[in-house]
Amino acid sequence: MKSIAKLDLQYAHRFYGFKGEAQYLHGHTGILTIEVEGSVNPGVNMVFPCNEIQKTAWDVLKNFDHALILREDDPLLPAVLDVYEKQGIRNGAPSNTMKGPAFKTELATAYPECRLVVTKETMTVEGMIKIVYDLLKDKLNIVKLTFSSGVNEASEEYEPHLNVDRCPLCGIALDENGVCPKCGYRKA
Ligand SMILES: [Zn+2]
Ligand SMILES: [Zn+2]
């Protein structure tokens, strides 16, 4: 059985080098749907609490929300950083609090302090799915991702690949010591 969680990401980007409107900076509300597979946990009668999927995903993905997403070779990147620098917000601002942990994968690097994500490839809906899977595959047993943004939508399916030990009381994943981070349950 699957548990499904959705989250919204509002971001700005452009397709650098693309011959169309999308070569200009513009924004979207993207909707990401994450489908997680698992056995139904008899104690709580759910695969994985959807709010926990959301929490786990949001912790990382909030770096994409109200963020600027640019490809690493886009000349806007040094230009924007220069403006942020001069304005004194390059390394953070008191109002910029919704920051996830900085991350760097082969496909994307997040700079939460200035709400910027730099990508290796153009950030299309397909590109976003690759980035998200890479960021979350070790945390969630993802079997399908769907990302829609405006009229564009893409999805990809994956083989179940994680066997997550879950708390029989809360349904959430136990930590590496077999302890529930929420209620303290300890695996015998
Ligand atoms: Zn776009
Ligand atoms: Zn628990």
UniProtKB/TrEMBL annotation:
Taxonomy of the source species: Bacteria, Thermotogati, Synergistota, Synergistia, Synergistales
Molecular function GO labels: 6-carboxytetrahydropterin synthase activity
Reaction(s) catalysed by this chain's protein: 7,8-dihydroneopterin 3'-triphosphate + H2O = 6-carboxy-5,6,7,8-tetrahydropterin + triphosphate + acetaldehyde + 2 H(+)
Family indicated by similarity: Belongs to the PTPS family. QueD subfamily.
Taxonomic source organism: Cloacibacillus porcorum
E.C. no: 4.1.2.50
UniProt pathway: Purine metabolism; 7-cyano-7-deazaguanine biosynthesis
Pfam families membership: PTPS
The protein's name in its UniProt record: 6-carboxy-5,6,7,8-tetrahydropterin synthase
InterPro entries: 6-PTP_synth/QueD (IPR007115), 6-PTP_synth/QueD_sf (IPR038418)
Domain of life: Bacteria
